[in-house]
Write a structure and sequence with these properties.
The chain has helices spanning 2-25, 27-34, 39-66, 73-87, 98-107, 111-136, 145-167, 176-192, 195-222, 229-243, 254-265, 270-299, 302-311. With 323 residues, the protein is an all-alpha fold. The radius of gyration is 20 Å and the shape is globular.
């Protein structure tokens, strides 16, 4: 238990340390920038961020439908809110496992169904955000080579995953664990390889990330800064790809650092770039937290135990032989 508590403490301290270091470097300019906030753009950023969450719920409902789980948009959105809220607290994105518990509790789903739904969502998220980044590179020049690889590598891995997925139905095994893996691949294939599902999941993912970019644009406008759309897109892409590496809870610190690097390279004043990056992530996390709290009330207090079990890496008992 002490090891798990220290994992949270260390990763949280790293996140806080990065943020404090960034703010300290530009502390003299922060108060000046804060004095010129235009609050209407803050309201617009919150509204767009909330819309993006609702669209995430619609996409997750499509994914769940593909593996045989019929639910409402409120349910699917609540699932995501709770798991992402948990990710703000626990390291290594263990909060995602909460969805396995929720689906099991509400629909009696198998572990493989829950994990398959997570894999499909993550794959489309990463591939589509990388694709947006690749498009933005056509309009942003002098991008450091490490950012190019950060965008290209997920596209290569994503293409390889879909190729493997398309031929995975040819494999079979008597080994229990390999059968579980093949069952999951079959479920993932059902959801993600039909023309209809590819269109629905790809288009919704692109719109979700464009809304995420708009939130950051509005945050910039809060401080009287208009940043080219392609630059903000590249920053959001790099920030979220870096955040996908679970070094800190919710990617706090590493996300902001990535945004500031892109904005500063594009000629944005470091103080303003830092403020935009910090406020952008703070606002998105506050919307997540608010939605998570409401969703916990919606589902019930038992979700708290599910979050604790996810942190302990304890999956629910599965009485289905096929898992």
């Amino acid at each position: 238990m002490l090891r798990k508590i220290s994992a949270i403490a260390v990763s949280t301290l790293i996140a806080v340390g990065i943020i404090l270091f960034m703010l300290y470097r530009v502390k003299d300019d922060l108060l000046v920038a804060l004095e010129h906030i235009v609050w209407i753009y803050c309201a617009m950023a919150v509204a767009v961020c909330s819309l993006a969450w609702l669209l995430r719920g619609v996409r997750y409902r499509i994914i769940l439908s593909g593996i045989g789980i019929r639910c409402s948009i409120l349910f699917s959105t609540g699932c995501i809110f709770i798991s992402q809220t948990a990710n703000l607290i626990v390291p290594a994105r263990l909060g995602d496992l909460v969805r396995v518990f929720i689906l099991r509790h509400e629909f009696g789903s198998t572990i493989s169904q829950g994990i398959s739904s997570l894999v499909v969502e993550r794959v489309f998220d990463i591939v589509m955000v990388a694709l947006l980044g690749a498009v933005s590179l056509l309009f942003v020049f002098n991008v450091p080579g490490e950012y190019l690889w950060l965008i290209v590598l997920p596209l290569i891995l994503g293409a390889g995953f879909f190729v493997f997925l398309s031929i995975s139905d040819r494999f079979s095994s008597d080994n229990r664990y390999l059968r579980i893996l093949l069952t999951m691949l079959d479920q993932i294939r059902q959801v993600s390889l039909s023309a209809k599902s590819i269109l629905a999941l790809s288009s919704s993912s692109v719109v979700i990330w464009i809304l995420d970019v708009l939130v950051c644009l509005f945050v910039g406008m809060m401080f009287g800064v208009t940043i080219p759309f392609a630059v903000v897109t590249l920053a959001i892409v790099v920030g979220n790809l870096v955040k996908a590496i679970p070094l800190t809870p919710g990617g706090i610190g590493t996300y902001e650092l990535a945004l500031v690097a892109i904005f500063s390279a594009a000629g944005i004043d470091p103080a303003v770039a830092t403020l935009i990056a910090v406020i952008d992530h703070l606002l998105k996390n506050l919307v997540t937290l608010g939605g998570g709290v409401i969703s916990i009330y919606f589902f019930g207090d038992w979700v708290i135990d599910a979050i604790k079990s996810a942190f302990k890496k304890e999956l629910p008992e599965d009485d289905h032989p096929g898992v």
